[in-house]
Write a structure and sequence with these properties.
E3_ubiq-protein_ligase, 3 domains, ubiquitin protein ligase activity
Length: 462
């Protein structure tokens, strides 16, 4: 139910581009290739998708195939599974750390625990990428212990907490507890150097396979991969802004909202106004141009307002992990590479779920849903959680602690109209899925897996 604006709220609107609504709309005859080379490519792609389970089993037994005959499979979305991609990436990172004819270098840090950020920065920020790829050995001043890996893991944990500390103003937190560079980081005169250092540390963690305890915004993951961000990503960063923007797209704003092509910025309580396009203060937002306005507001929030900060963070990160080594991943997979696969308790998830629209816990489709979810591997469970909540994190305390826009918000499944061709759709603000009344468990599983692995993002912008 929608509430009248000022400012407007939108409830139960579909997630933009979260999944295509019909499998029947995936291809059209106009898109079918006609030249021989394209036909062969199309047939090879279809073959790879049809036999991806067998191909992944071969790759798991013989990983070097991805560096040889099977390398083209990495460019086909949804064919090579996450575990095989991760193994391939780790092999590539080990090769990068090796200089021809030389042993891998080492990095020895002596860190005062109470000054972990300053000491780490001064000892690392001028190192070359090749030096940074060396084996890390950390000692905390005045503390006994030989670093066999555990001290380094603790160093990452303590250092990342310091980098994300609000008192340094390098990063800001989103409504779902994820982080991205702060537009107000300039309060620290060396902010760009520290943000580049932060990117260097995150890239080092990725190279070495050290999992971070923090999560970054989905839009930051996309920036690191060179992917366009979308209106969906606004929902994951600022849910109130996302609802307001969606409301303006779905409703007539003329005579209701008095807007122009500007955005407000807040610098520690001091508000200023910036144009979203040249002369934006003199351009009224109307029903005819509101889509352009929404596009520009979202781009400003996720990209333009932090363009210098993003460039610094990306620069440090890509010094450690070249872009060409990342293009096998999507943003969800990169999050899993940085933060690891969560341990998801399906029974806890089921116990803390609600149903609406005519569904109940005893409905056949709900029974099939939880059976299908119970048969998923941890990788697919993480993707499902990302699809429903926009993050792979399980809250401390389990699924009973899920929080939405207005506080505690349980996962819910609503009955959706449509036939077996319709895909499930998610509403990440509300931790919910619209689940059509499928005629069999097999079809439900197939459509659900397609939605969480192949569903595309919409409303893109640069």
């Amino acid at each position: 139910m929608q509430r009248a604006p000022s400012l407007p709220r939108v409830a139960s609107l579909p997630r933009s581009g979260s999944a295509r609504e019909s499998l029947g709309g995936l291809q059209s005859s106009a898109d079918e290739p006609t030249d021989p080379a394209s036909l062969v490519q199309s047939e090879m792609t279809a073959f790879a998708h049809a036999h991806k389970r067998m191909l992944n089993a071969l790759i798991q037994r013989t990983p070097h195939l991805l560096s040889q005959a099977f390398e083209p499979l990495l460019r086909l979305r949804g064919v090579v599974n996450f575990n095989n991609k991760r193994t391939h990436f780790q092999t590539r990172m080990r090769k990068l750390s090796m200089r021809p004819g030389q042993r891998p270098s080492s990095l020895r840090l002596n860190i005062r625990r109470q000054h972990v950020l300053q000491d780490s920065y001064h000892q690392l920020h001028l190192r070359t990428p090749q030096e940074m790829r060396g084996r890390m050995a950390v000692t905390f001043t005045g503390e006994e212990g030989v670093d066999a890996g555990g001290v380094t893991r603790e160093w990452y944990s303590v250092l990342m907490r310091s980098l994300l500390d609000v008192n340094f103003s390098l990063f800001e937190s989103s409504t779902d507890g994820t982080y991205q560079p702060s537009p107000n980081s300039a309060v620290n005169p060396d902010h760009l150097s520290f943000l580049r250092f932060a990117g260097l540390v995150v890239g080092k963690a990725l190279c070495d396979g050290h999992l971070l305890e923090c999560h970054f915004t989905r839009s930051l993951m996309k920036h690191l991969l060179g992917l366009p961000v979308s209106l969906d990503d606004v929902e994951r960063f600022d849910q109130d802004l996302h609802k307001n923007l969606l409301w303006s797209l779905k409703n007539s704003i003329e005579g209701v909202l008095d807007l122009n092509f500007t955005a407000e910025t807040d610098y520690f309580g001091s508000t200023s106004v910036v144009d979203l396009k040249p002369g934006g203060a003199d351009i009224q937002v109307t029903d005819d141009n509101k889509a352009d306005y929404v596009n520009l507001v979202a781009a400003h929030k996720l990209t333009h307002a932090i363009k210098d900060q993003l460039a610094a963070f990306q620069g440090g990160f890509h010094d450690m992990v070249p872009m060409e080594e990342l293009n096998i991943f999507d943003e969800g997979e990169l999050e899993l590479m940085l933060c690891g696969l969560p341990e998801i308790d399906v029974e806890d998830w089921r116990r803390n779920s609600e149903y609406s629209g005519g569904y109940s816990a005893a409905s056949q489709q709900i029974v099939w849903f939880w059976e299908a979810v119970g048969e998923m591997c941890q990788e697919d469970l993480a993707r499902l959680l990302q699809f429903c909540t926009a993050t792979s994190r399980v809250p401390l305390g389990g699924f009973s602690q899920l929080r939405g826009v207005s506080g505690p918000q349980k996962f819910s499944i609503a009955k959706a109209l449509g036939d077996d061709n319709r895909l499930p759709a998610s509403h990440t603000c509300f931790h919910s899925i619209d689940l059509p009344v499928y005629s069999s468990k097999e079809i439900l599983r197939e459509r659900l897996m397609f939605a969480i692995t192949e569903g595309t993002q919409g409303f893109g912008f640069s």
